Amino acid sequence: METKKRAQMPTIGGTSLLVIFAVLCLTTFAVLSIATAEADARGARVSAEAVSSFYAADLEAEEIFSRIRAGELPEGVTLSGNIYSYTCKISETQTLFVEIEAKDGIFTVLRWQAASHNT
Amino acid sequence: MKNKAFLPLIELIIMIGIFAAAAAVCLSVFIKADKVSQNAEDLDRAVESAENAAEIIKYTCGDLEAAAELLSGRTRSGSVIICFDADWNPTDAEGAVFRIDAINYEGEYLGKTDVLVYSGDSLIYELTVGWQKEARDGN
Question: How do the pLDDT tens digits run along chain A, 119 residues long?
Fold first, then answer.
């Protein structure tokens, strides 16, 4: 009697391949999700710093304005006729430009503008 | 023969263990990613709300009553308090998840307001805004 050799399906290794594939997929999705979340957090921090920088420059400009109202001529302020001009740095690429007109003791803000400048 | 019959079973058990360990690690990463994303969103909303409060306080030149009315908040001894729920909608103090405290400091010509944004008791954002007080001669 001849024993027929039958082709057998591999019973060892199939589960391993499936689990390896599943673990690779899980790992990829986990890395992508944490990378995306960190990128979002970085963007939020940059945005918060930009707003903080603007308001710090705005506060500095208001302080200079109050000193002008008190009758002083602070350092960095130029007076041309009856117009006071000065700038406050917001960041490496942005500056707050301020022009104030003084007429008959009344101060009028002509310009209070954040603008980019070439570094 | 008997030993060979156990091999697939042993392999299955080991693979289940490896998958369970990897799934646990990945699940903790997913949870952390969700928390980081939530914190980023809270910071974005805090910055937006603080900026809104700052501009209104500048507009009202430090008039806390007027600012509180515009911001749907309430005044308390030299400050304005605005409470928000989890979706950043104005709410009363009982359901508050986030809170903005705007505290005034006034000089002769210049007024300043510290705008502080809290999540519970943790400070998540702050900025200081300046505004011109009305001069004694009305300028």
Answer: 555 555 555 566 888 999 999 999 999 999 999 999 999 999 999 999 999 999 999 999 999 999 999 999 999 999 999 999 999 999 999 999 999 999 988 999 999 999 997 65
Q: Rounded to an integer, what distance in angstroms lies between the CA atom of residue A41 and that of residue B42?
A: 10
Q: If contacts are CB pairs under 8 Å, which of residues 118-137 in chain B contact chain A?
A: 125, 127-132, 135, 137
How far is the C-alpha of A68 from the C-alpha of A48, rounded, in Å?
A: 30
Q: Give the Cα separation of A11 and A16 in Å (integer).
A: 10
d(CA A66, CA B107): 10
| Residues in chain B within 8 Å Cβ distance of A22 | 19
This prediction has a pTM of: 0.84
Among the partner-chain residues A27, A44, A69, the one whose CB lies closest to the CB of B40 is A44
Interface confidence (ipTM) of the complex? 0.84
Residues in A closer than 8 angstroms to B32, CB to CB, are 34, 37
- Whether the CB of B33 is below 8 Å from some CB of chain A: the reply is yes
The verdict on a CB contact (< 8 Å) between A29 and B26 is yes
* SS3 state at B118: strand
CB-based burial, B125-137: b 16+ in 10 Å, e otherwise? bebbbbbbeeeee
Cβ pair A40, B36 in contact under 8 A:
yes
- Shortest distance between the Cα of A46 and any Cα of chain B, in A, equals 10
